[in-house]
């Protein structure tokens, strides 16, 4: 696994790549990709960091791990490439977007336009074996992404962190709530949504309201 990401992130995370856990993680990922079908494509693993440079981060959305079906994962949490059918969680995100800010349900499930506006779409685990949800968890990715969140919290101000579901909320302890804004709700998965923990959370309008309060440009969702 080659670490290819925007230079602004390489500068911030340089020390992380030299730690023993990350070297073990790199070895594990290389072996998995050589022996099994894994997602996303190897060149897309760090896409979230490429499309959203460190200096531009205004919002962080935390997912769990990549989609594990063919052609779905593209390196941005909850996102799929243009032309790929929308997974259930993404459908619920778009339905909430419709009712929250009045945006028509999008044709494309590619969230790259969000990333280019300063939304870091970060999965807690950045890789997965095909058809095996959670298969690359507890191998070091969580340590790495926790460090990413801690770095953002320490080095920046007034970032909006959007934590959907219990897994994302585990990252709360790495965020300084005195200098950042935190929005939480249930997960957009059908299980959570059907229990009433998702719809009506207004994460998108709340985020823009927070950004406008600190004179930052609102996100065009």
From TrEMBL:
One of its GO terms (biological process) is base-excision repair, AP site formation via deaminated base removal. Its main location: cytoplasm. SMART domains: UDG (SM00986), UreE_C (SM00987). One of its GO terms (molecular function) is uracil DNA N-glycosylase activity. PROSITE patterns: U_DNA_GLYCOSYLASE. GO terms for cellular component: cytoplasm. It is found in: Cytoplasm. Excises uracil residues from the DNA which can arise as a result of misincorporation of dUMP residues by DNA polymerase or due to deamination of cytosine. The active site is at 65 (proton acceptor). It holds the Pfam family UDG. It is an enzyme of class 3 (hydrolase). It comes from the Bacteria. Its EC number is 3.2.2.27. PANTHER family: URACIL-DNA GLYCOSYLASE (PTHR11264). Residues 50-211 form the Uracil-DNA glycosylase-like domain. The gene is ung. It catalyses: Hydrolyzes single-stranded DNA or mismatched double-stranded DNA and polynucleotides, releasing free uracil. Keywords: Cytoplasm, DNA damage, DNA repair, Hydrolase. Belongs to the uracil-DNA glycosylase (UDG) superfamily. UNG family. This is Uracil-DNA glycosylase.
């Amino acid at each position: 696994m080659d670490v290819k990401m925007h230079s602004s992130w390489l500068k911030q995370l340089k020390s992380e790549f030299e730690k023993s856990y990350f070297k073990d993680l790199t070895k594990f990922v290389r072996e998995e990709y050589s022996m099994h079908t894994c997602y996303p494509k190897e060149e897309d693993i760090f896409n979230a960091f490429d499309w959203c440079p460190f200096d531009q981060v205004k919002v962080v959305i935390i997912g769990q791990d990549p989609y594990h079906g063919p052609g779905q994962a593209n390196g941005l949490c909850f996102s799929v490439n243009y032309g790929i059918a929308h997974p259930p969680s993404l459908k619920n995100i778009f339905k909430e977007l419709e009712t929250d800010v009045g945006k028509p349900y999008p044709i494309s499930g590619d969230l790259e336009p969000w990333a280019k506006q300063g939304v870091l779409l970060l999965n807690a685990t950045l890789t997965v074996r095909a058809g095996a949800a959670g298969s690359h968890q507890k191998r070091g990715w969580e340590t790495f992404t926790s460090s990413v969140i801690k770095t953002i919290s320490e080095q920046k101000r007034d970032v909006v962190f959007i934590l959907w579901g219990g897994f994302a909320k585990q990252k709360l302890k790495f965020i300084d709530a005195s200098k950042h804004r935190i929005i939480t709700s249930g997960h957009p998965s059908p299980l959570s949504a059907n229990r009433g923990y998702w719809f009506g959370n207004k994460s998108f309008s709340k985020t823009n309201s927070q950004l406008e309060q600190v004179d930052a440009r609102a996100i065009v969702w």
